[in-house]
UniProtKB/TrEMBL annotation, chain A:
Keywords: Acyltransferase, Cell membrane, Membrane, Transferase, Transmembrane, Transmembrane helix. It holds the Pfam family MBOAT. Belongs to the membrane-bound acyltransferase family. GO terms for molecular function: acyltransferase activity. It is found in: Cell membrane. InterPro entries: Ac/AlaTfrase_AlgI/DltB, AlgI, MB_O-acyltransferase, MBOAT_fam. GO terms for cellular component: plasma membrane. It is a multi-pass membrane protein. This is MBOAT family protein. The chain crosses the membrane at residues 6-22, 27-44, 50-70, 77-95, 115-134, 194-215, 227-246, 314-337, 365-386, 407-428, 443-460. It comes from Candidatus Nealsonbacteria bacterium CG_4_10_14_0_8_um_filter_35_10.
TrEMBL record, chain B:
Gene3D superfamilies: SGNH hydrolase. One of its GO terms (molecular function) is phosphatidylcholine lysophospholipase activity. Pfam families: DUF459 (PF04311). SUPFAM superfamilies: SGNH hydrolase (SSF52266). PANTHER family: SGNH HYDROLASE-TYPE ESTERASE DOMAIN-CONTAINING PROTEIN, THIOESTERASE 1/PROTEASE 1/LYSOPHOSPHOLIPASE L1. The lineage of its organism: Bacteria, Candidatus Nealsoniibacteriota. This is SGNH hydrolase-type esterase domain-containing protein.
Length: 475, 343
């Protein structure tokens, strides 16, 4: 069940009604939430559900064992749980990549080895919920949180359906507390939740979908057939596509969770309006970058062990971020690209501390504009590696970008408008949401009742016949 | 504290219920299309409720004479969506074509060896058409386009439409689109890979279901489907375009594979009757030595590589390349393809 479909709306309405009417009985309410999430997940594939339940059970027990320090072997339990979770991720996500690399490595040393060929289907959302349970175990190990003694609560945390498929990756400490005593008593910020859902629908169904089918899909598939200008447009278009696609999904997830009475962390905070890359990573896919910061970068020593070590740590963190998206050269290269940018960014800041050379305000304004421009282009260029099918395609795209023999190519002018429109929506996003919220508060209820279906129908009307699937469902 | 007349919870629930009741009613035609496009899921409780509701609402619209209004409204949106100013697609004439009358066009069967294929003169303007296999996602279209660009005097235009086919012209009409593309690009070669979604009930271009055409594989169904393939081939014939029709490879699901095999046979037979067309069979290309489905095949270095993606239908990049090689080999028999010199 995808968010922007009618069956999801039907499912959600039913869940919403029962969610609020079962709250009096805390146990039944929680059981209901769990079953609803399991139903939601099993619609994809029943076999996936089994993995989800196994992961919940294993991590529930491992966290308890770590906390109770059974046989004084806290550390061993922790390591076992880490190995279990990472190897699940490894098998489902990286098996074929490892098989091919290991075979060719062994061959280089004169061995011929053949690992079994497995046809593996990646359970949807696995990377997201594995990251959730890893953080839970680490937090328990470090004594940051107490493990829950309720298997039911923990299972809801792992499988909560608005967050299940593509995040936000919520921490157990923030989530479990919301299940206590029947959770929230009423929907707070109703208007905001509706505004987020509408905005998310619009961002995904209209802007991201049209940009995908009208330019990015074609150009990234066969870049050699396109002129530099079109390729440049496609790169900027994809910069918008990936933002609207994923942030649209996150908005909807936050909105739906909010209607059920759950607060979620934000995942995006106008990420392209930044003047440096460090800021970008504080505002892009926030729950993932926080995760990497807290569980990879800081344990490695963060910025505390000298400059060179800091740059190394940044590089490792970013390459791992790339690898999280998938086992492929182009994702790793994308991580490397971001790591390189962050390192340069930090190195520059380290230098700048000693010499403040910008004095008056207009100098500052110009420099921040230039910095913003540079950062935006750096990020957009990085998306080339993220989007391409493989590294080879990325490089031939870059080659075609500078192939000035083929300057002119007729193209539909509306694509340009669409990109400009996209930028405007991006810039005005906050204002639009605010406007929607105010609007709802001023209107009488029966008008709202009419307005919402009309808005949704309008969004559906303007969406293309076939929706490209969410980009982050692959991860 | 003052008690609100409508608590936020009730408000939200009311609004959502209202959305559920109105949106499918309003969008019922589309709701039906959405449902039939998607692969069958194990759990279809909600889908079937929505679908039943959507069909009912179509009936209600008809009963109250609202059909006209909705049709006009539909056209209105189509015009906006497809106007060159906004979304650039040309409006495909709304005078939708009638599905061809149910009569078999008898043509003399010719043996393949008898067909005299004329060599096609360069420069080549190649049109690639098809469903998800040709669209970005399926694994054949883009490697094919990239490969063809390596040759001299070749220009390529590709249009792949996910979930399209010849069964549901009400959803996407390939005959109209083909005509449109031919007049726009003036190709002399076409490569078609179409039909992986076609093992279903046939509808007319107005979306009407004809009882005889519902059951896949029945004699009437096959006859009607043959007509549709022929109709498409005719469009190319009238414009002197040489057609390469790519058949589908073996599929993982044995029932689906069986259906695809039937479709492949229809394409092969129709193409055989057609001058200046060639059917390229790919069934065995992606099968193992015993002729069964396999997800892995050896590459030229003798390494096992993944050829199919996890749905058991579409191809990986490597799998696509295997098909592309076969297609290009077939093309060189009638075309003079010369590699571009490397700069």
């Amino acid at each position: 069940m995808l968010f922007p479909t009618l069956d999801f709306f039907a499912f959600f309405t039913l869940v919403l009604i029962l969610n609020w009417s079962l709250k009096k009985w805390s146990f039944i309410w929680r059981l209901f939430l769990l079953l609803a999430s399991y139903f939601f997940y099993s619609v994809w594939d029943l076999r996936f559900l089994l993995i989800l339940i196994l992961v919940s059970l294993f991590n529930f027990l491992s966290a308890l064992s770590i906390y109770k320090d059974f046989f004084g072997k806290k550390k061993n339990f922790f390591i076992i749980s880490l190995i279990y979770n990472l190897s699940l991720l490894g098998i489902f996500k990286y098996y074929d990549f490892f098989r091919v690399s290991a075979e060719s490595l062994l061959e280089r040393f004169g061995f011929s080895a053949h690992f079994p060929l497995l046809e593996i289907i990646l359970p949807i959302g696995l990377s997201f919920y594995i990251f959730k349970v890893i953080s839970y175990n680490i937090d328990v190990y470090l004594g940051k949180i107490m493990p829950t003694s309720s298997f039911l609560d923990f299972s809801i945390y792992v499988s909560f359906f608005p967050h299940l498929l593509s995040g936000p990756i919520m921490r157990a400490g923030d989530f479990l507390i919301q299940l206590k005593d029947g959770g929230a008593k009423k929907i707070e910020n109703l208007a905001e939740n509706f505004a987020l859902i509408l905005m998310g629908l619009f961002k995904k169904l209209v802007i991201s979908s049209y940009l995908t089918i009208s330019i990015t899909d074609d150009v990234f598939a066969v870049p050699e057939n396109h002129s530099p200008l079109i390729i440049l447009l496609a790169i900027f278009a994809y910069t918008l596509v990936i933002y609207f696609d994923f942030s649209g999904y996150s908005d909807m997830a936050i909105g739906f969770a909010g209607l059920l009475g759950f607060k979620s962390p934000i995942n995006f905070d106008s990420p392209y309006l930044v003047t440096n890359l460090r800021d970008f990573w504080r505002r892009w896919h926030i729950t993932l970058s926080d995760w990497i910061r807290d569980y990879v970068y800081i344990p490695l020593g963060g910025g505390q062990k000298g400059k060179l070590r800091k740059y190394f740590n940044l590089m490792v963190a970013m390459i791992l971020t790339g690898l999280w998206h998938g086992a492929a050269g182009h994702f790793i290269f994308w991580g490397f690209w971001q790591g390189l940018g962050l390192t340069l960014n930090h190195a520059f800041l380290d230098l700048k501390k000693s010499s403040q050379f910008l004095r008056n305000s207009w100098q500052k304004a110009i420099s921040s504009f230039l910095a913003g421009f540079l950062t935006f282009n750096f990020i957009s260029f990085g998306w080339i590696f993220f989007r391409s099918e493989n590294l080879q395609t990325s490089f031939s795209l870059i080659k075609s970008l500078f192939n000035f023999h083929k300057i002119f190519e007729p193209f539909k002018i509306y694509i340009l408008f669409l990109i400009i429109f996209g930028f405007f929506v991006f810039l005005l996003e906050r204002k639009i949401i605010k406007f929607l919220i105010n609007f709802q508060q001023k209107l009488p209820f029966f008008l709202l009742l009419l307005l919402f279906p009309i808005l949704i129908i309008l969004i559906f009307k303007f969406s293309p016949d076939i929706l490209p699937s969410f980009i982050y469902f692959k991860f | 504290m003052e008690k609100e007349f409508f608590s936020p919870n009730k408000k939200a629930i009311f609004i959502l219920i209202f959305i559920i009741l109105t949106v499918p009613f309003y969008e019922s035609k589309r709701a039906v299309i959405w449902e039939t496009q998607r692969p069958k899921q194990q759990n279809e409780i909600f889908s079937s409720i929505i679908l039943a509701y959507a069909e009912k609402s179509e009936e209600i619209k008809e009963k109250f004479g609202l059909k006209d209004f909705f049709e006009k409204e539909h056209l209105f949106w189509l015009k906006i969506k497809k106007s060159p100013l906004i979304f650039g697609e040309k409006i495909i004439s709304e005078k939708e074509e009638k599905t061809p009358e149910k009569k078999m066009i008898e043509e003399k069967k010719i043996e393949e060896s008898e067909i005299k294929i004329e060599k096609i003169e360069s420069p080549y303007r190649i049109l690639i058409l098809g469903d998800s296999f040709i669209a970005v996602y399926g694994g054949v279209g883009d490697p094919l386009e990239r490969e063809l660009l390596n040759y001299k005097d070749v220009e390529v235009f590709r249009l792949g439409r996910v979930s399209s086919g010849l069964s549901r012209p009400d959803y996407f009409n390939w005959n109209l689109t083909a005509k449109e593309l031919i007049s726009q690009y003036k190709p002399n070669v076409a490569i078609v890979m179409l039909g992986s979604n076609d093992a279903q009930a046939l509808t007319t271009s107005e979306g009407k279901v004809v009882v005889n055409f519902v059951k896949f594989g029945k004699e009437e169904w096959i006859k009607e489907y043959q007509n549709r393939v022929l109709e498409l081939l005719k469009i190319f014939k009238e414009n002197d375009i040489f057609v390469f029709w790519i058949g589908f490879p073996i599929m993982r699901d044995s029932k689906y594979s069986e259906k695809i095999n039937i479709l492949n046979k229809i394409y092969q037979a129709e193409v055989l009757n057609h001058k200046n067309a060639k059917f390229i069979s790919t069934w065995e290309l992606l099968a193992d030595e015993k002729g069964n489905y396999t997800a892995y095949l050896l590459d030229e270095k003798g390494k096992q590589k993944l050829v199919r993606v996890s749905d058991g239908i579409h191809l990986t990049f490597f799998g696509g390349k295997i098909l592309v090689k076969e297609v290009v080999e077939n093309m060189t028999k009638v075309m003079q393809l010369e590699l571009k010199e490397k700069k």
